[in-house]
Design brief:
This protein is α+β, with helices and mostly antiparallel strands. The protein has one domain. The protein is built from two helices and two strands; from the N terminus they run H-E-E-H. It has a two-stranded antiparallel sheet. The longest helix is centred in the middle third of the chain and has 21 residues. The radius of gyration is 15 Å and the shape is elongated.
Length: 96
């Protein structure tokens, strides 16, 4: 999905074709968890002003069925997120 809040099924191929599926592994639960986390992260990034145009979030699953959130950032958005992380770390006393 471009920006955040979509279903992750745009483009040439969905993640369904990205790997081998194993019978008996619950991929759907992991994907649902990742989709919820993707929405939470997208909302939080939007609240702090990270431009949606420089951001791509996508819910997926790993080979074991665990949810995975894929985050792609433009260089400008990556710098914004890095700055926000440094500011937060300083406020929490974790700056190094």
């Amino acid at each position: 999905m471009c920006g955040h809040g979509g279903d992750g099924f745009e483009g040439d191929a969905a993640d369904l074709e990205a790997g081998i599926w194993v019978r008996g592994v619950d991929y759907l639960s992991g994907w649902r968890d990742a989709r919820e986390a993707t929405a939470e992260l997208g909302d939080a990034l939007s609240l702090v002003g990270v431009e949606a145009a420089g951001l791509r979030l996508r819910a997926a699953t790993g080979p074991d069925g665990a949810g995975v959130v894929r985050l792609e950032l433009s260089p400008g958005s990556a710098r914004e997120v890095a700055m926000l992380a440094r500011v937060t770390a300083a406020r929490l006393g974790r700056a190094g």
